[in-house]
């Protein structure tokens, strides 16, 4: 059977419409998201981020927490008043699972806050340098690491592997990064003045304690 010219045009129109439907039909992106790093996908996710993975219960973390042997989280300086963007942010301390108010814990002393994640290659190279710097700086300022992925157990295992025992908090929801306006990359170093104001947000990986010391001296005036 031969189609008339009108029939041919109708058939062609149907083909075009079908192609357009296929082109705009919604597609799941779970495979694409799974292949990217967390920092690449966090801004596009429609699911509210979790501070900690559900399986990372206190009981499940007890062994890796003990093995990591991290330093205790900082405590508030007597008389210091929390201020700035970190005031009121409550997070879990990696060393013991207790919660701290980050702004209150850092108030009254200059601080270096380091954002990292267990899967971040540059972070793995930077954290040992940060440990060396913190040992040099002593009480001149507070150094606090902030784990930016919900998998807290993986963070504790990574720190054990790196030989890093710095105090840290678990922040899979990215509260601190959002508060200081950190870019969606890792690692990021945030330098905080004693009054709680932010002196600098540095989205660059440091390769040595000397590099860290130079940046801290420039932004906070602390020598180490």
TrEMBL record:
Residues 31-58 are annotated as: Disordered. Coiled coil: none annotated. Residues 60-221 form the Thioredoxin domain. It is found in: Cell envelope. Keywords: Cytochrome c-type biogenesis, Disulfide bond, Redox-active center, Signal-anchor, Transmembrane. PROSITE patterns: THIOREDOXIN_1, THIOREDOXIN_2. Its main location: other. Pfam families: Redoxin. InterPro entries: Redoxin (IPR013740), Thioredoxin-like_sf (IPR036249), Thioredoxin_CS (IPR017937), Thioredoxin_domain (IPR013766), Thioredoxin_ResA/DsbE_sf (IPR050553). Signal peptide: none annotated. Gene3D superfamilies: Glutaredoxin. This is TlpA family protein disulfide reductase.
């Amino acid at each position: 059977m031969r189609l008339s010219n009108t029939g041919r045009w109708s058939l062609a129109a149907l083909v075009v419409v079908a192609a357009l439907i296929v082109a705009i039909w919604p597609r799941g992106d779970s495979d694409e998201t799974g292949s990217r790093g967390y920092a690449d996908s966090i801004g596009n996710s429609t699911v509210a981020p979790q501070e900690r993975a559900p399986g990372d219960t206190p009981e499940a973390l007890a062994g890796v927490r003990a093995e990591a042997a991290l330093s205790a989280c900082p405590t508030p300086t007597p008389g210091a008043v929390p201020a700035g963007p970190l005031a009121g942010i409550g997070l879990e301390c990696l060393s013991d699972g207790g919660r701290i108010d980050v702004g209150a814990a850092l108030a009254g002393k200059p601080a270096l806050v380091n954002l990292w994640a267990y899967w971040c290659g540059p972070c793995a190279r930077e954290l040992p340098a940060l440990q060396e710097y913190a040992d040099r700086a002593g009480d001149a300022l507070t150094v606090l690491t902030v784990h930016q992925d919900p998998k807290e157990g993986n963070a504790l295992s990574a720190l054990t592997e790196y030989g890093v025992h710095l105090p840290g908090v678990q922040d899979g929801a990215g509260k601190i990064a959002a508060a200081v306006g950190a870019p969606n990359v890792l690692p990021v170093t945030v330098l905080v003045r004693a009054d709680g104001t932010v002196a600098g947000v540095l989205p660059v990986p440091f390769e040595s304690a000397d590099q860290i010391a130079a940046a801290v001296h420039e932004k906070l005036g602390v020598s180490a």
